[in-house]
Amino acid sequence: MNWQVVEWLEYAPTFLSGSEFEVACSFIDGYLTSRTFLVGHGLTIADIAVWSNLAGIGQRWESVRKSKKYQNLVRWFNSIDAGYKETLNDAVVAHVGKRGIGKSPAPNLKEKVNDSKDPSAPEVDLPGAKFGEVAVRFAPEPSGYLHIGHAKAALLNKYFAERYQGRLIVRFDDTNPSKESNEFVENVLKDIETMGIKYDFVTYTSDYFPKLMEMAESLIKQGKAYVDDTPKEQMRSERMDGVESKCRNNTVGENLSLWKEMINGSERGMQCCVRGKLDMQDPNKSLRDPVYYRCNTDPHHRIGSKYKIYPTYDFACPFVDALEGVTHALRSSEYHDRNAQYYRILQDMGMRRVEIYEFSRLNMVYTLLSKRKLLWFVQNKKVEDWTDPRFPTVQGIVRRGLKVEALIQFILQQGASKNLNLMEWDKLWTINKKIIDPVCARHTAVLKDQRVIFTLTNGPEKSFVRILPRHKKFEGAGKKATTFTNRIWLDYADASAISNGEEVTLMDWGNAIIKEIKMESGIITELIGELHLEGSVKTTKLKITWLPDIDELVPLSLVEFDYLISKKKLEEDDDFLDNLNPCTRKETPAIGDSNMRNLKRGEIIQLERKGYFRCDAPFVRSSKPVVLFAIPDGRQQVSLN
């Protein structure tokens, strides 16, 4: 373990000493003046130890937080609290009893933090970055919901802004009214909040439309841009072949006249676009006179039909980056060939240089990240909407049961690496399991259409109830009421694995011995046996979940999902429509213990011996099942059979 971490672990309990509290606060406040974390550039067990000791103090610490006396310490505390809240809840339980009395650190905290860090993930620096002066931006197009690829970009921008105590701008690149809507804006902001990203302000490229038009006109007057009416396909062909447009040498007057036609949205103007006059012979085709402006008469979601012309991303992005004071533009390496274009356009505009920092695009197996292709699934009713659990959108994977903490850890493990990798979903779900397993409640279910009654001849004549923990190792999960009866339900798969005369363990009860197996046409219809509670659970081979035969059992619908496409990686010439997975959703009716009528939407549980599930639709009435979405555990598909 890092020696600095060891020192902090030894120092952390100082907060619990009343006489040393103020001294400790003052010391750490000064120490954090130029730091985001206590050790290195990421969360370590040192942060968790100090944070949990502070949180365990209670009212005295809350008074300090409100007084703003130690601003660096409070800033650090709030940042850790916002970014790692679920993980830290476990830490607080370990440190603080019901009366707020300090306890020794939980033994699994070190393991939890170490598991969240990938030793192969390098700590990277932004070129030329100055502490306190860095400004980065996350610039999504409001043409869809954020997906896991966007999440990487957003979280990396957050990371660098916090690391250098700089600014983070959220800017909507709203330059294509045909694809954009307020729905997407609202949900992007929702996703940003879900990921715990704190930004300085929100802007829109459309805020700068007047200035962008002025710049385009200025470049036309300087001879650095021209208006072209070449048909689209011909223009594409000429760019590929390095052939100059017939309009390239138009006079400034001719260009300005056509520019006015474009602004007015006239029939003549609609035939034109503005192109930068760069270099048609450059081997880098992005420099072959890219389009700066094009016409579009569709109303804009923010400003209606005020404009008939809109800037392209290539033109607007460098301009607004420079204008807003962005120091470092994080872009995925798929844009590498366009970096030269970005710098050339800035140069022609006479604006200051913005450093580009590249990171690898996040690619996941069996996954489409193209918003155009995802939109096809929505429009063709192949999924419910953009929040469908089969979608790689932030809302989709969270709805399936992913904790945001797992997503953050997964992204930061990769860092800002430029290596192109096809990532497995299993790695993400493995991280998720480590977060949910220590705290999620345990419940029991059997499959409705595949169950067998087990009659216990010496079972209780009158049913009785015991109050048991919902999680044997996490008191915070609460309690549940378990009913014990002389007739209980077993899954058919368990019943078929039992031999006559065998002793088995009924979980949370004790042992039982099978005396008779009744069958009809080769199908088991009933088991008869007797309790043997004095038997040792260590000697039995089968440990079986069960439910009492009572009216209060809860109807369930257990839902499994599969990938939308059947090919691990689509090549450029692959049509995704030829690789659709024919079956991507499977619903299995089941019955659950009576406590499950209290589940809340979004609550994550474990159905013992079946897997982890997220409650998507809670109990309303007995005729309507509780809907539970199966959560992958990183090792294998959840089995409901």
Give a brief rundown of this model:
This protein is α/β, with parallel strands linked by helices. Helices cover 32% and strands 21% of the residues.
Keywords:
641 residues, alpha/beta, Glutathione S-transferase Yfyf (Class Pi), Chain A, domain 2, Glutamyl-tRNA Synthetase, domain 3, Ribosomal Protein L25, Chain P, 7-stranded mixed sheet, 27 strands, 32% helix, globular
Report on this structure.
The chain is an alpha/beta fold and 641 residues long. Helix content is 32%, strand content 21%. It has 19 helices and 27 strands. It is globular and about 100 Å long. The two termini are 44 Å apart. Residues 133-437 form the Glutamyl/glutaminyl-tRNA synthetase class Ib catalytic domain. This is glutamate--tRNA ligase.
Spatial ordering of strands, largest sheet: 12-25-26-27-23-24-13
* Corresponding CATH architecture of the domain at 441-631: Beta Barrel
Using the coordinates shown, work out and report the CATH topology of the domain at 441-631: Ribosomal Protein L25, Chain P
Major sheet description: 7 strands, mixed
How many DSSP H or I helices? 19
> How many extended strands?
27
* SS-derived structural category: alpha/beta
CATH level-1 class of the domain at 441-631? Mainly Beta
Whole-angstrom Rg: 31 Å
Overall 3D shape: globular
List segments where confidence is low: pLDDT < 50 over at least 5 consecutive residues. 94-122
Range of strand content: 15-25%
Task: Report how far apart the termini are.
Answer: 44 Å
Query: For the record, what is the CATH homologous superfamily label of the domain at 441-631?
Result: Ribosomal Protein L25, Chain P
Mean pLDDT: 89
| Approximate helicity band | 25-40%
